[in-house]
Every structure is written in structure tokens, then in C-alpha cells.
## 1
Amino acid sequence: MNIAVLGYGTVGSGVVEVFFKNRENLQKKAGQDLDLKYILDVREFPDSPYADRFTKDFQQIVEDDSVKVVAEVIGGLEPAYTFTKTCLEHGKSVVTSNKELVAQKGAELLAIARENHVNYLFEASVGGGIPIIRPLHMCLAANRIDEIAGILNGTTNFILTKMIRENMSFQDALALAQKLGYAERDPSADVEGKDACRKICILASLSFGEHVFPKDVYTEGITEITLEDVAYAASCDCVIKLIGRAKRGQDGEKIMAMVSPAFIHHESQLGTVDDVFNGILVRGDATGDVVFYGKGAGKLPTASAVVGDIIECAKASDTSPSLRWNPSQGGNVADHLENSTRMYVRLQSDTVKLPQMLEKQFGQVQPLSRDGQPDNEFACILPERKEREIEEELSKLTNMGVEILGKVRVLDY
Ligand code: HSE
């Protein structure tokens, strides 16, 4: 059975490396001879030991009937979407790490795979090397999944860890994450939370059975988080993490899904997930909480998941019946302002007596302190309220000239 790899970037080169390093073992696991016949890339790699396998001609791969599995590791929507669709329509299974494409077109591509009796697998799209997609639809199949929450982006977790532990600046930590091959080609997708949003959409779609689109999910990144916020979090035994979460809507209600930074207890399951590691908590009605942990980004961890999917496709005789969800028109996620939460706020004013004013607005608040706190700065955790109410009350303060310096949800994961 022949394989083609589309894209020779960080993940693609990792897939080729893992394939040839472990080829013998992979063949045993697949129960057949395997070869990686083509590597598609627009660039030239004359010095590569695999130089003879490179092609720039996608059509050559499509028309080669010996190619049964294609790894799409180009990323982005186009040409990845057209290539994937064409391969599936030509009876080739496709495996991918492309979370943007799965989050946008997953339901459609899964349906095309089904029509053609092949597979569209995307274990590498969420959590890098962590097995999460297959456990969700296979090992946990007995459960109704009610909630998922996770640290789903390695780059931002790496940056936050450096800020928390080493007082490193945001920019220096981002540059290091890029150097280590964790970040997206455009790292704004990491730091603005879009990458985590795509991943929570994939997990929510699979768990709740209908397509959840990124455009419907309220998303905040970590660009506004400061070392002052990190210090206030530490004063109440918390760390700041970028959390993607989704909750099944009860009795016909819409799904709750959101990506945002959050204060979480430093000893909690997700609070101890540091550096490039991801942690994903799945709440099943039979299992209770199950937590998946491992390297969420990087060349070889991601390649591990892609190659695992290649083997799965080689073994499969038809489409996996459990990896599916229904298409939707979107609009199935509740307005985030309806969500109830505790909130950390950091405010500054020379005229308004902030503690008294906040107690008047919200009732009892939990004051926080930090070294070097200026006299005109006040930080606290507000009691649980709907986000709409919090916004309304904070805008009254803004109208009185109060400056809102920080605002982060406080979660119990
Ligand atoms: N940029 C992504 C991350 C890569 O940092 O998690 C893995 O999807």
C-alpha cells in the first residue's frame, strides 16, 4: 500500500521521519507492506534523502491507484480542502493535522469519506501527540459526553508558563515557542485563541453530534494578560491558563462553548499542565472525569498522531461508523453573555473608592494583593454573575472614569 504526504513543513517532515524510522514496525502493525511514494511540496529539496519522492504535481498522486492513504499536512483551508475532497472522491483515505479545515468542513468531509467507503481521520488536529479523537468516539463510546475543557494550545501554555515561572516577557516567550516549532505559521492564531477555538469546535462537534463552527464560539486570547495579572492569580493560589470549554445544552438549550484565559487553582488537574503540554478533561456520564495529558504541539508528537492514523486507515476495510457528526447551519452555541461565572478584575481610579463601589454593585468580593500594588489599583474576584450583568456594572464604572486594567474568568477545573 502506498502513501502520499501533502506538505513538507514541520509536521510533514516529521511524518516522513517517523515513517522511515519505524517502517518495519509500522508494516507489522498494518499487516502489509507500506511505502511512502510521494511527498508533495511547491519547494525543492534536492539534498533530502527522499529527493526522488518529491513531486509538485497533485494530479500524479490522485491518478495513482496504488496510493490508498494521503496525509494532508499543508494546513489552512485552501488548497487543503480541494485536495482532501478530491482524494476522498477518488477512494483514498485522508489523515490530517489540519484543525482549521476539520473545524470548518469536518461534517462535509466525513460524509464524502462515507460515500466513498474510505476514512477521514484527524487525531493530530487536537492535542498534538495525545490520543483524544479516537478515545472520544471509541473507548468512551458508552458515555454521553456532557462537558469538555482543556488546555488545547501548546504555544500559549508555553508562553504563560514562562511568564509565571520565569517572569519572561510575552514576546520573548513567543519567539522561543516559534523557534521550537510549536507555533502556527501565523502565531496570532495561537495567541488570539483561534487555534484553541478550532480544537474545541472539533471536540464539541464529535461529542455533541452536530457541527459547531468557530465563528459561533466566543474567543479571547492571551495578548492582554500581564505579569500583574499573573501575580494577582498567584496570590490566590491560581495560575492563568487558556481554557477551551464546551458543555452540552440541556433540554434543547444551546451548547455553551468558549475560549478564554482563566484563573484556575494551581494544584487542579488542568492547573498542573505546564509548558507545551496540553490537558483535556472529558466528563462522561459513566466514567466521570477522564483527563488526557501529553505534548500538544511539535514536529514528532504531531507526526505520531498522523502516522497512527495512516496505520488505522491501512487496517480499515470501510469507513469508521463512530467518527461522525451531523452538519449544521451554525447558531447552535449560546450567547456568552448568558454564561454565569466568577470574574477577576483589576481596576484603577484616583477618584472612585473601588472596594466600596464594587461591594455595592456585586455584594461581597474577594480582594487580592500583589507586591508593588499602587494605591489607586484594586483587584478582586467578583461573585458568580451572568457575564451580561458583569459587563453592565463594569461599564458603569468606566463611565465614572475607572480604568479596567484586567478581567479574567475564574474557573473550577
Ligand atoms: N500551534 C499549535 C499549538 C500546534 O501551539 O498548540 C498544535 O496544534
Note: The chain has a mean pLDDT of 97.
## 2
Amino acid sequence: MSRVTTILEDSAFVRACRRRPVPHTPVWFMRQAGRSLPEYRKIRAGVGMLESCRRPDLVTEITLQPVRRHGVDAAILFSDIVVPLAAAGVDLDIVAGTGPVVAEPIRTAADVARLRPLAAGDVGYVDEAVRLLVPELGPIPLIGFAGAPFTLASYLIEGGPSRTYLKTKAMMYGEPELWHALLAKLADITLAFLRVQVGAGVSAVQLFDSWAGALSEADYRRYVLPHSAKVLGGLAGAGVPRIHFGVGTAVLLRAMGEAGADVVGVDWRTPLDEATTLIGAEKAVQGNLDPAILFAPWEVVEREARRVLAEGKAAPGHVFNLGHGVMPETDPDVLTRLVDLVRSA
Ligand code: CP3
């Protein structure tokens, strides 16, 4: 399918991703489209999470909500990392307050063999939603996204969220061939999902490896990096900036940068100047205000946001964001005020 639009190269967001001069530091928030907004809770009432991801009218409206309310510099598509897995036939649900739950976890060679590739036609509703959104957004770039193979594998193997990743690591260490077969299949699904979004007109993509921080650098390099690199490398010719993000990744930042992204997302534990020393001057950074700081008095929010902006100056490009997603209890007015502060700093 042909690309319907051009990447919004002149936007502050895309310029920062490409390490070009910017009129102001661009800002958006992970999980900006979601439960911190009353208008989101209203439109989602009585509609399941997966169902809402499959309805282009709802996806369009929910994606636009934080843009209208906060004036952020980028929109992120309303979807979820498990949407392509469900579309490829995995029996799963997204349970409110819990997260993804998989009916029959993937543990054996037969389970891995059953996982089928994603065809573009499986996610026609995502293609349609992006094509509706791009003209609605005008000058505001739309970020597409997917889950990285490790984080997707953790849900498929555990059957749901986990704190220890015991079953995941048991397969990784105990059955490395099966592990690599599973991650290779997930890399193909992820790449296919991102290609649909790029073909429909997103201006950037983010690969979420949210739980990669559970690994040492050596294990990340051996068991995960080649698969994430296949996804990011598969988009090299697409022309869109690629962001690579994980939580608790202080020891992985260098390796995550090597996987092929243009921008490395950094959680709140590593200051952006330190992160830049690790990642190098060839990549921009994204982050990294602690989402919990938004619950402190405004003076503290302002002080910490200015610190993040100052530390971000050490990087060749900086996209302001939180170190992880917006918490549902966050006061949306604080987010709006933070956007104003970052854009006028
Ligand atoms: O960022 C955005 O605003 C765009 C939408 C988005 C969602 N999930 C919507 C969502 C994005 C980018 C994601 C990615 C995602 N999903 C990740 C990677 C990012 C991260 O936070 O680390 C992960 C690990 C998931 C899996 C997942 N889905 C979790 C952990 C949860 C939260 C469970 C809960 O209820 O606390 C979900 C559900 C989910 N995805 C919600 C939203 C808005 C909440 C469900 C609801 O509103 O009913």
C-alpha cells in the first residue's frame, strides 16, 4: 500500500528526533491518550479496550483528545502493544487495572509453531485510523508504535503481567533455540504492524521494550538485541525517525542505541546528560521526568522539568517526555501547564 503523506519534517518533534535545531523543545507524553482524561473515560464507558482499538472512529477521537487539551507537539496512536498479537489470532484480552491476559500462554515448541504471521489485512482498522488521523492532525505529527519482541514475549509466555519474568527467563536460558524462534516470529509481527502504520502516514515510530530492564547487558545483547535490531533495521528505508524505549534500562542504554534507533527513550533513573554520554552524540534522547513528580506541588514540577530540560541540552536532540507513562490519577491540568512550561522554556 502506498504512503499517503509525507513525514512532517518541519515539526519541532521530527526535527528534534533528527538532531536538527528546534524553535522549542518538543513535548508529548507516553500514555497521554488514556485514563487521566475525563473525556477519555466518558467515550470508553462500556467499550472494551481491544474493541475500542478496533474502531477507527474511537481511535481517532481518543488520539486527538490530548492534542486538543494539552497542545502537545505529537500525537500517539491510541492502540496497544498486544493489538497485533490478537489480530494474528492469539486469544487474549486487556483487563482494566491488570493489563494483557493471554488465555493459552506460549510455553512449548508446538505453541510457538501455532503463532502465525501478521498480514496487513489483519489490522485494516489501524490503517484506516491512521489515514483518518493524519489530515485531522494537520501540522502535528502522529507517532505509531509497537511492542518489542522481548516485552511481547513476556506477556505471551507468562500469560499476563509479571514482576519476576520467571517463565520468560526459564525459556530464554533453558531453551534458547525455542526462545529465538519465538522472538524471530514476534519481530516479524512487530515489523509488519509498524509497516502498516508507516504506510498509512505516521511521522515517527516508537518501539516499546518496556520490560527489557529485567535483563543484564550481556543477556540483552545475546537474547534480545538481534530481534529488536531486525525490527528497527527493517524500517531504515522508511524514512521515519525511530524511537526505542524501555524502563529500568540504565545498563542497557548503549546497547539499545546500537539496535538502530534514532532516538533512545530514557526513564527517570538516569539523567539525560549521563544517558547521552552512554548513548553517544549520534542519537537524540527522549524523556525523562518521573511521572510521580506530577503529584508534587507545582514549584517542584517546575524545578524538576527545568532540570530535565537543562540536562537534555547535553544531547544532540531532546524530546521532552515522562520517564514512563502518565499515571491514571494525574491531574490533566498539571500536564497542560507542563506543556506550556516546556514550550516556553
Ligand atoms: O501512549 C498512549 O497514550 C497511546 C496508547 C497506548 C496504550 N498502551 C493504551 C492503553 C500505548 C502506547 C500502550 C503501550 C503499552 N501497552 C505498553 C508499552 C508502554 C508502557 O507503558 O510501558 C505496555 C507494556 C502495554 C500493555 C498494557 N496495556 C498495560 C501494562 C496496560 C495497563 C493496565 C492497566 O489497566 O493498568 C494496558 C492497558 C491500556 N493500554 C490502557 C490504555 C489507555 C488502559 C486500559 C483502559 O483504559 O481500559
Note: The pocket of coproporphyrinogen III is lined by residues 30-35, 44, 49, 76, 78-81, 94, 96-100, 145, 151, 208, 210, 325 (CB under 6 Å).
